[in-house]
Amino acid sequence: MTARLGRAYNPAMTLSIGILGLGALGTLMAWHWRDHDCMVISKDGKPVFRQLVTANNTDQLQLAHWQNENLDWLVITTKAADTLNAITPLADHLHRIKRLVLLQNGMGQQAAVADWLSTQNNPPELWLASSTEGAYRQNRSDVVYAGQGQTFIGRYQEGLVQNRLSHDSQECNNCDFYLPMSTVYAPDMLDKLRHKLAINAVINPLTALYRCRNGELVTNPDYRRHLQLLAAEIAGLYTFLNWSLPWNLLTQAEQVATATAANQSSTLQDVLQQRPTELPYINGYLLAQAEQHEYALPHCAELMTQLSNELICE
Known about the structure:
Structural class: alpha/beta
EC number: 1.1.1.169
Domain Ketopantoate reductase C-terminal: 189-307
Organism: hydrothermal vent metagenome
Helix content: 25-40%
Transmembrane segments: 12-33
Number of domains: 2
CATH superfamily of the largest domain: NAD(P)-binding Rossmann-like Domain
GO molecular function: 2-dehydropantoate 2-reductase activity; NADP binding
Strand content: 15-25%
């Protein structure tokens, strides 16, 4: 069976895109998709105003509230723990949505959403996305574009069931739909999610523990030793589970931390704002996988206990 892939973005093709979860990443994607018909699902049913601050400009975004129009894509950018609660109220409107995309940190929520969709009438296709873009909220309405990256997107079945296709094409010219602007088709989404999970599992909890920016994990000798221990332990789990990594985890984590030295991780931002973090879907997910296979992660477990005692994990 030939997999149906999406065509790369065509400037002449305007897509209807809804966004649920207009935080830092959701706002950044809305900015990327400003030439599409982009809408937001807001809590109060009103239009939403945002400003995207780049190195050269401050661009204003006025996003209309979705009024149950047909959508080519509905992109979920909520916190992982909020996913099901966020999409459940949309059950009666799923027939209006062609494709639902989870663009979030962490793992575990994807399977939960797939299970929920399987119980619904006329469910949309489930897609997954992972982004290396950097953004953070400066205040309630302003988001800073902190680092350019890539956003990969692929079907759930291809990523978590088939895992691999027999080719590596990023688009298909015989399909009847287009990918959103600034996204790249990826047939190996499971690998991409696991790669990002490994980096997040090393950097995010340590920035939360030490209340530090990313770069300090490399420049502070004590923090760096902790980084080394955690990276070695998580890399060992990946090897045990036969989960591939395209690079040495410690080396890559240090490179990412250095390249984003001034950035606050999303976990640290949550901690500073006294919000629940996504660590249960990052390190917590890895601990669950390790327990299932009777593999010990003592440093990861101790770290999660420390953070839980500080009341920053759900």
